[in-house]
Write a structure and sequence with these properties.
- The N terminus is likely disordered.
- By secondary structure, the protein is mainly alpha-helical.
- The radius of gyration is 24 Å and the shape is elongated.
- It has 21 helices and no strands.
- Helix 8 runs antiparallel to helix 9, helix 15 crosses helix 17 and helix 17 runs antiparallel to helix 19.
- About 70% of the residues lie in helices and about 0% in strands.
- About 40% of the residues are buried.
- It folds into 2 domains: about 120 residues, no CATH class; about 120 residues.
């Protein structure tokens, strides 16, 4: 009997979790919308105030930090902090109030306590809000950098208060880029990418020579691809041993550059260096994958043109597939297979 009750309880928990997940899926378009009407923002606030499930509270709360409620809603959020016993909801109410531009210094103890959260997202939101209210305390710079992957605008707002110049911001980002935590290095990488200056590009290239974490490499490759002026450095990177993690960074970055990188890859596929040829074939396969993907428009301004351009590499890849060493052939064959998927 006890086993039956336990099984039924687990089933009910599963059903409730599924229902909450379905609800989040339904409201995500509203939560992720770049802009909202006052009515829509009220709907998000109501969802935040009534939500019970942590995922819903977090998602609605983060959305309200990005697009804050009107100031007349301030009492409702303060009421949550005073009367609600849900810690996550209390913290996000404090963060939302700070995002609204209010100066409730009495929230500082609550926010500082939340900076010790085991959840890096909660910790970073709380740290940014705490810093905005108390910019003299600069101890949470890494958490502010971490926030960039969730809310770049709020992160930048906090950073501006502890950083007197772009040079100082770079210093904070460089420190974060050396941190053992991979998600923090990814966040620093994303921030470097958006800075679009020589110093940031130099730092990204420095990271490319050392990074081995798959998660960071993906972010780093995307970041490098945004720096069109460092294309020659990426091509030089193809000389890296194809068996290393670093070689994947260069190849993937070139793959995110349809159009721009095709001609250099054409030359690289004919290079005397085996590593260069293999990595060029990998980059070509990545590029075809990018053009096939639903996100192609993020990387290509003219998918049809870039598709025709990458197809000009087929003769060189076919020659590699026939005549190359046993190490290189699979890479050429895979690139041809990926290109064949393009219409």
């Amino acid at each position: 009997m006890k086993k039956w009750i336990l099984s039924l309880s687990l089933l009910l928990i599963g059903i409730l979790a599924h229902a909450q997940s379905d609800k989040l899926t339904k409201v995500l378009p509203l939560l992720q919308a770049p802009t909202r009407t006052s009515v829509q923002n009220q709907q998000v606030l109501n969802l935040f105030l009534t939500a019970k499930q942590p995922q819903l509270i977090f998602s609605a709360g983060a959305s309200l930090v990005r697009i804050p409620p009107v100031h007349s809603q301030e009492p409702k959020l303060l009421n949550v902090i005073i009367k609600n016993d849900d810690g996550l909801k209390q913290v996000f109410s404090a963060v939302i109030l700070t995002a609204m531009g209010t100066q409730h210094l009495e929230l500082l103890p609550l926010l500082q306590q939340a900076t010790a959260s085991a959840d890096p997202a909660v910790r970073s939101y709380a740290a940014a809000a705490y810093t905005i209210l108390n910019p003299q305390d600069k101890q949470y710079a890494n958490d502010i950098v971490q926030l960039y992957i969730y809310d770049p605008v709020f992160a930048q707002r906090a950073m501006n208060l502890i950083s007197a110049s772009e040079k100082q911001t770079l210093s904070y980002l460089k420190a974060a880029a050396r941190f053992p935590q991979s998600s923090l290095r990814s966040a620093a990488t994303a921030w470097f990418a958006d800075m679009q200056n020589k110093d940031a590009a130099k730092q990204l290239l420095k990271m490319a020579k050392a990074e081995t974490d798959t998660q960071v490499i993906s972010t780093l490759a995307t970041a490098l691809a945004k720096q069109a002026n460092i294309l020659p450095s990426l091509i030089t990177g193809l000389k890296t041993n194809y068996q290393t993690a670093q070689s994947a960074t260069y190849a993937l970055a070139l793959g995110f550059m349809p159009g721009f990188a095709v001609e250099p890859l054409k030359q690289a596929l004919q290079d005397k260096n085996t590593n260069v040829r293999i990595n060029a074939a990998r980059a070509t396969a990545y590029m075809a994958g990018v053009l096939i993907s639903p996100d192609a428009s993020r990387y290509s301004t003219d998918k049809t043109f870039d598709t025709q351009l990458i197809k000009t590499l087929i003769p060189l890849l076919s020659a590699m597939a026939r005549n190359e060493t046993a190490q290189a052939k699979p890479y050429a064959e895979n690139a041809l297979k990926q290109i064949a998927k393009l219409k």
